[in-house]
Amino acid sequence: MTVSTTAVVVCGFDALLPERGVAALIGDRQIALFRTYDGQVFALSNTDPVSGANVMSRGIVGNRGDVPTVASPMFKQVYDLRTGVCLDDPSLVLTVYPVRVTDGQVIVGD
Predict the structure, then answer these.
(1) At 110, is the pLDDT very low, low, confident or very high (cuts 50, 70, 90)?
(2) Cα–Cα separations (whole angstroms), residue 2 to 98, 101, 105
(3) Which residues, in sequence order, are CB contacts of 3 under 8 Å at separation 6+?
(4) Angle (CA) 59 81 41, round 5°
(5) Are 15 and 105 in contact (CB under 8 A)?
């Protein structure tokens, strides 16, 4: 599920390390930002749907075939970074936020 939010500059693109996640607070929402080796940036809910803990930014970034993924650090379910859908159990879904990079700045929201 993609959620619309007011556009907010979160950080500089260079502050995101490839294949690592970082947490950010936008209003009262915790989000997890991920930058992949090919330079794509993804924004998802930081809340693990299984445990309820705000830990997704500490997940293991990788891929399954051509699908960029993050594995929950709690129970290791693997989520598609593009859609938020769990590849192991499609009933589990992370909220996806619109994200873009403009002038070297990572902007979350519309």
Answers:
(1) confident
(2) 7, 18, 21
(3) 95, 96, 97
(4) 95
(5) no
Residue 62 per-residue DSSP state: E
**Which domains, ranges and CATH numbers included, belong to the chain?**
8-108 (2.102.10.10)
Residue 3 has pLDDT above 70, yes or no: no
Query: How far is the C-alpha of 2 from the C-alpha of 94, rounded, in Å?
Result: 9
**Spatial distance between the Cα atoms of 9 and 60, rounded to a whole number of angstroms:** 25
| Residue 71 phi, psi dihedral angles, 5° rounding | -100, 130
For residue 91 the two structure tokens come to 């009933």
Q: What is the tens place of the pLDDT at every residue in 49-108?
A: 999 999 999 999 999 999 999 999 999 999 999 999 999 999 999 999 999 999 999 999
